[in-house]
Prior knowledge:
Layout: H1 2-22, E1 92-95, E2 99-103, E3 112-117, E4 121-127, E5 133-138, E6 141-146, E7 150-153, E8 194-196, E9 201-203, E10 210-217, E11 227-233, E12 236-243, E13 248-250, E14 261-263, E15 268-271, E16 277-285, E17 288-289, E18 294-298, E19 305-312
Parallel strand pairs: 10-19
Antiparallel strand pairs: 1-4, 1-7, 2-3, 4-5, 5-6, 8-19, 9-19, 10-15, 11-12, 11-16, 13-14, 16-17, 16-18
Amino acid sequence: MHFRFWALIIIVMLLVAVAGCAGGQSSVAPTPVPTKTLRPIFTATPAVPTPVPPTATPQIPPTATPEPTAAEPPTPEPPTAAPATATPQPASFTVTSATVNIRNGPGTNYVRIGQVRQGQTFEITGKNPAGDWWRFDYNGKIAWVIGRLVSANATGSVQVASDIPAPPPTARPQPTAKPATAQPTPPPAPPLRFALTGKSQLRLNTNDFVTVWCFVFNRSETALVPGTLRVTRDGAVIKEQAFTGGLESAHGDPGISGSEFLYNPGCKVEIQPAQDGNYSAYLIQGGQQASDVFNFNVSGTTNRTAIIEWKEK
């Protein structure tokens, strides 16, 4: 249908254009050209769409607000039974060490009044301000125990004791003894100048005295050396005798051949009466011992005569 409509429009326009061109020619009438009579073409008129009336927007009827429903009263819950009040446990401690000392006050400086043993339990009746000692009753006495050696329970309500005894007075320290002033070390004694020769001898003597002879000579065995002979008995000095560097010959015992001997002039000591005991003899020079000691024992008439020989070292 649309094709036909537009074809008709084009034909009409062509006819109008041709007619316009003919009007401009000369007045000579052209020989009419026979034309084919056009048959009318019936073109269906396009149907005009019928306007559709606007669709009415449906109105939503207002929703009726529901009336509030009366709330039902809440069902009352049954009352909860109150828990039974627990009986408070008394504060106590149990000994955890094998043996623990207890004292009459909160401190190791107080007097020890006894001991408690591991596993024993006691009720706590107080504490010290620091809270590290517990007070308790011990055989009718107030006692204290240190907290670190026990296990305490329910101590939250334990009060500081009001009857804590005063600590005992601190013992005054004893004055430190001043160390003794070190005495200077005495100089070592000079080495002994004379040594026993091994030729000393002891003899029997029936006289009522003890006789000591000495013979002293130098290294060359030529010049005799002067000095002092000291004799002791049982540790006590009984006689000292100075002698010179000379040389004398002593007569031996009568009737005994070869009993003669040499000695220094003056180097002879006689001790009377003769007494038994332990005797010693040695030389002195410059107030100091200068020789080895010759020891001998006198008993009765035995060893009442001592002939001693020293040589310079």
